[in-house]
Amino acid sequence: MRKFVSERAEEIPPSGIRKFFDLALTMENVISLGVGEPDFRTPWNICESSIYSVEQGTTSYTLNRGLQPLRETLSRYLAQRYNLHYSANEEMIITTGVSEGLDIAIRAVVDPGDEVAIAQPGYVSYGPCVTLAGGKPVPGCHAMKRITSSSLRRSCRRRSAGRQKP
Question: Where are the alpha helices (DSSP H) in the chain?
Answer without folding.
Answer: 7-10, 16-25, 44-56, 68-82, 98-109, 126-132, 149-155
